[in-house]
Amino acid sequence: MIKAGSTSRILGIDPGTNILGFAVIEVDRDKIDVLEIGVLHLKDKGEHTDKLKEIFLEIQEIIERYLPQELAIEAPFFGKNVQSMLKLGRAQGVAMAAGMTMGLTITEYSPKKVKQSVTGNGNAAKEQVADMLCRMLNIEPGKFALDATDALSVAVCHHYQAGKPVSSKKGGWGKFLKENPDRIK
């Protein structure tokens, strides 16, 4: 885990075999800066094994570029399509292996835990999570794909789980809650 009072970097990943979301944040005490947020487009990468190789190489490249200490990744969502679950699990495993080979500490979070951590509601829609992150971190709404903001939410969740509350450039949770009483349930 991240030591209180130290600057650290976290790579958040929302695994996928067609689109993989990633985000790198830097945490300095109670301040979060988004260093990079984006997606890997893998749909046209050929066979499933080619996509897995691309995930491995791209994640290692991101790690080399930003030197995060930790990787936080979303666990696969249990669905009815077993083949999709297997492919998603492989993508997650390859991303984790890329992080492990680069010496990162790996932590996995359920989708419900991530949503709960960011919005206070474990059943929040992806759009609600993205909106909350934009408000908290002062980033432009709608600028990033939902897979990217999902990855950002995993990184932010990991930071929260380390026991450190975040303050945004807009004044933190207290100010947000006062300005948005209709969003409290």
Can you walk through the features of this model?
The chain is α/β, with parallel strands linked by helices and 185 residues long. The protein has one domain (7-183): Nucleotidyltransferase, domain 5 (2-Layer Sandwich). It has helices spanning 48-66, 82-101, 111-119, 126-137, 146-161, 172-179; strands spanning 7-14, 19-28, 31-41, 70-74, 105-109. Helix 4 (126-137) crosses helix 5. The radius of gyration is 16 Å and the shape is globular.
Q: Which structural class matches the secondary elements?
A: alpha/beta
What fold name goes in the CATH topology slot? Nucleotidyltransferase, domain 5
| E-strand count | 5
Q: So what's the CATH class?
A: Alpha Beta
Q: Percent of residues in beta strands?
A: 15-25%
Molecular shape:
globular
User: What order do the helices and strands follow?
Assistant: EEEHEHEHHHH
Provide a short characterization of the protein structure.
The protein has 185 residues and is of the alpha/beta class. The protein has helices at residues 48-66, 82-101, 111-119, 126-137, 146-161, 172-179, and strands spanning 7-14, 19-28, 31-41, 70-74, 105-109. α1 (48-66) packs parallel to α2, α3 (111-119) crosses α5 and α4 (126-137) crosses α5.
